[in-house]
Each structure stands twice: as C-alpha cells, then as structure tokens.
Amino acid sequence: MTGPFSLARFSPLRKSAHWPDRSFRWMALLAVAAIIGLIGLVGWQLYSGSRLAVEKFGFSFLTSTKWDPVSDEFGALPFIFGTLVSSLIALIIAVPLGIATALFLTEMAPQKMRQPAIMVIEMLAAVPSVIFGLWGIFVLIPWLRDHLFQWLRDTLGFLPFFQGPIYGVSMLAGGIIVAIMILPIVTAISREILRSVPKLQREAAYALGATHWEVIRIAVLGYAQRGLFGAAVLGLGRALGETMAVTMVIGNRPEIKASLFAPGYTLASVIANEFTEATSDVYLNSLFELGLVLFALTILVNAAAQLMLRRLAGSGPGKVAG
Amino acid sequence: MRVVLGLCALLAAAPLFCVLYFLVREGASALDWNFFTQLPKPAGEPGGGMAPAIVGTLTLLALATVVGVPVGVMGGVYLAEYGHPRANGWIRFAADVLNGVPSIVWGMVVYTLLVVPLKSFSAYAGGVALGLIMIPLVMRTTDEVLALVPQSYREAALALGIPRWKIITVIVMKTALRGIVTGVLVALARVAGETAPLLFTALGNNFWNQSLAEPIAALPLQIFTYAISPYDDWHRQAWAGALVLMLMILVLNLAVRLFARTKTVR
C-alpha cells in the first residue's frame, strides 16, 4: 500500500496548518462522510417511505402472494420469487460461460487474440440495459419463442419447468437477458482471479506429468475456486438489481408458476412499472417496501462478494473492484 | 478442450455482435435529419424526432457531473492523501458496496428527497440521481490514480515549504489529471444509458425543456417508452434512438481509451 503521505502526517507542518489547509482537509473528509452517509440515507429513506406498508401488513408482506392495488392488498412473494428465479437462471448460464471465457483468455487464446477479445467483452458491459431490452423485445423474444423454447419443450418437456404454453415473454427470457448483462463482470473478475494464480502452481503440476487440461483443472481451477465463487456472487448482486431489460422481456405478471415459459415479475420491474401510477399511500408504501427488500438483498450479496474477493486479493483491500 | 472453451468465448461475445448488427440495421434506416431536429409527434402520427431527448440527455449528464464529480474526486483525495490505512479499507468497501446498489433504488431515494418536496419531477432530480450513481465510481478511480503519483513528488514539494492543499491540487492532482478525467468519462459512459433512475425523477417530456425545474426528456427514457408502445413508427424511432445512444457511449469509451493510452496512469 502506498501510504497516504506518511511523511507529512507526523511533520510539524500539520499542527501549524493554515486555514486553507485545514478547510481543504475538511472538504475531503466531508466528501467521504457523504459517501458513507449515502448508504444510511438510502436505507432510511426506503424505510421511512415504506412505514405504512410495514405497519399494515407486517411480516405477512413478505409471504403473501396477493398483489391487488384495487383492494389495497399487497404481498411481495411473487416479486421475490421472480427476482430470485430470474437471477438463478442468469447465474446458471453466465457463471460457467464467464469462467470458460476467462479460462480461454488467460490459458489458451493466442496472445494476439487476447486484447481484442477482452475489449469485446468490455464493450458488452457498455451496452445500456434499455438497449438490451429493445433488442430483447424485437429480436431475442421472437427467436426464443420460435426456436429455443419449442426445442426445449420437445426435448425436456417431461420436466415441469419446460411445460405449458409459450408466449415468448417469460421468466426464462428474463433470466437469459440478465445472463448476458452480468457476463462481462463475471468474466472480468474471473480473469483477474485466474491471472493471480501463481506460476509455481502450474509448474508443479506440469512437473508431476499433468496434461494441459489437468493442469488447468487441478492447479488453476482448484486454486482459484473460492475466488471464482466470489465472482459468481458479485454477478448475483448485479443480477438482482437489473431493471430495464428484465422489465421489457419478463412479461410482468405477479404469479408464481413452475414453468419457466410463464411470465414473471421482479422487484425492480414492479417498481419501474408502477411507481408513478401508485394511487394510494399504502400502494406507494408497499412499492417502497419492495425497494427496501431489493436494497437489503443487494447490499448483503454485494458485501459478501466484496469480502470474499478482498480476502483473496490479500495485498490490501480494493485490489479487485466491482 | 481448447475448442470448447473457444466456443464458450465466442458464445459470450455473440450477443454484442447481434445487438450491434440490429442497432445498425434497424437504427440506420430510421435515422434522418428530422430525428435530430424535430419534436416527437403524438402517438400514431408518423414522423417527428428525438431532438429534446438528445439535448435532455446531455443536460442530465452535465448536471450529474456537477453533482458527482466534486464529491467523488474529493473523496478520492481523502483516501489517497489523508486517510488512515485501516479506515480506508472500510471506506473503499463502502464505496464498492454502494456501487452495487441497483440504479432504480437511487431513483426512489431521489424521488423522496427532491421530487416530493419540490412537488415536481425535474431535470435537477434526474441529474442528482445520475450524479449519486457516479460518486463511488469516480472516487475509486481517483483514489487509484492518485496512489500512482510518486511519493517523491510530494516530499519534494513539502521540502520547499508549499502548503499541503497546494501540493495536492497543483502537483499531485495535476499529475494524475488524465487518470481522473478518464475515471469521470467512464462514470459518464456508465450513467449515460441509465433509464431506471430517470423514470421517476426526470420523468420525460415531449417538448423542449424550458427550465431545469421541469420534467426533462432523455434518450433512454424515450427508447423505453417507444419500445413498449404498440406503434411501428415508434419502434423504428426507438432503434434510431438506441443507435444514437450507443454511439454516444462508444464516443465516451473511445475518449477514455485515448486519454488512458498516453501517460502511465490507469
């Protein structure tokens, strides 16, 4: 760690600091305080905004499946279910694909290909959510409906997840689009983790007569296991909060269905869709409580991911940024 | 094995090419002079453009810069120049966690902070929402580039008796200026396409914005509204809007590359 100005810290200059010095320092401190304060502020605003709903529904808010603005009955379960299931689908697709891509980039790809390939993945991260949504509506959904979903129903139709009518907009479509969106971060973090595997590990495995693939499996993946898990958790943190693209392809129906072809709804989507239309106070407060649930979920998951990755980075906090 | 992993990498990159292909194919055909100069037409009437949305997005980005950059940069300065190593770890942790807060949550928070008290959706509220998202990003990059400035610069300046705030602003920050600007551009590129936090702060507007205290149009909002509408003409314009937005973001990213290439910083 390059220490912050350690020389000056103990120099006599600091005590006799003039007012410009002191005020500059205070300004910097204030900025940091603002950043720390922001987390508290967000939590407090969401909590105070949802108080009516918390009082009225209590714990049953989280377990009720009823979402009926007309009769002022609100329950969060369909949205929690939708958020978790779509994120899970996204993880199932994006984590293996991201790790495989990272492995290819660090272990196998020809040197000349690496930089351009990394740039492509980075550019994928630059595409705004709303553009993925647009593409999802007009390109991805028709293709899924006419090809992939039909095929899934024909081959895996004996499973309850792949039964029922196909509309196109669905939980599965939402999961797929989230997978595309979290792929860049999962790949980037995995790549960093894989690059930090010591050379010695590989050499030792080679010395024991392992083939290239065995080296990767035992020496590299085995060593990087926990870091890759951290990358997946970070991806989960992103997936939970994805809003626009999901809203545009998931179908927006607050139901809990076993079939992945059925439409779903997520916490972020319902807020995006109904916030400006909330007519009663309880309605608005319920949406705030959904926001609070979403905030709590993402904070927990992100904090866990950061702690996992940080412990691995070893050489001081902040080496692996999100 | 090599082939399998290579195919995975290809599969990972495929969506990008697919999105870009359709953006160009669908967007370019709807892109004409009117798109850049005209107001949106009422639903069902063909023609019209997204001029206010383009200007609105630029306005919002300017407001976001005013909110996000000073706080972010000063926070980074504190971490790199004043902070205590152990406290810094926690502050960075907090910033990284904050970075993971979904953008729609920022929209809700700014709604209660600005929209409700001022009784109106406004450009200010939209700009603040985007600015808040920028803060942790700008802070982390500033922190990182300031740490790259050699310690000897500071010591030399200190030996000359220069006050510390001057050392930081005139010497340290100037040396790292490229890196700081790069960080700001990265953050801008990220918030330029944000839609969710604008839904209930900037709200959108089909006319020219008269004052910053009024709702303002923004490209991502307009794309969203047009995409989920039932009109074919609006769909075409949504593609055109998406193409323009993507080009804006690519230009920002290109600027980042140009800035980051020269000098060692970043």
UniProtKB/TrEMBL annotation, chain A:
Transmembrane intervals: 24-47, 79-105, 117-144, 164-189, 290-309
Gene3D superfamilies: MetI-like
The keyword Transmembrane is annotated on this UniProt entry: yes
ABC transmembrane type-1 domain sequence ranges: 80-305
Cell location: Cell membrane
One cellular-component annotation, GO: plasma membrane
One MF annotation (Gene Ontology) recorded for this entry: phosphate transmembrane transporter activity
Origin: domain of life: Bacteria
Example GO biological process: phosphate ion transport
Keywords from the UniProt entry: Cell membrane, Membrane, Phosphate transport, Transmembrane, Transmembrane helix, Transport
UniProt topology in membrane: Multi-pass membrane protein
Function per UniProt: Part of the binding-protein-dependent transport system for phosphate; probably responsible for the translocation of the substrate across the membrane.
PANTHER family for the chain: PHOSPHATE TRANSPORT SYSTEM PERMEASE PROTEIN PST, PHOSPHATE TRANSPORT SYSTEM PERMEASE PROTEIN PSTC
Family, per entry: Belongs to the binding-protein-dependent transport system permease family. CysTW subfamily.
Name by which UniProt lists this protein: Phosphate transport system permease protein
Source organism per UniProt: Horticoccus luteus
Organism taxonomic ancestry: Bacteria, Pseudomonadati, Verrucomicrobiota, Opitutia, Opitutales
Automatic annotation (TrEMBL), chain B:
Family matches, as CDD domains: TM_PBP2
Subcellular location(s) per record: Cell membrane
InterPro entries: MetI-like, MetI-like_sf, Phosphate_PstA, Phosphate_transprt_permease
Signal peptide: none
Gene Ontology cellular component annotations, sorted alphabetically: plasma membrane
Membrane-spanning residues: 54-81, 93-115, 121-139, 175-193, 238-260
GO MF annotation terms: phosphate transmembrane transporter activity
Biological processes per GO annotation: phosphate ion transmembrane transport
Its membrane topology: Multi-pass membrane protein
Domain of life: Bacteria
Domain ABC transmembrane type-1: 54-256
UniProt keyword terms in alphabetical order: Cell membrane, Membrane, Phosphate transport, Transmembrane, Transmembrane helix, Transport
PANTHER family in alphabetical order: PHOSPHATE TRANSPORT SYSTEM PERMEASE PROTEIN PSTA
NCBIfam families linked: 3a0107s02c
Name this polypeptide is given: Phosphate transport system permease protein PstA
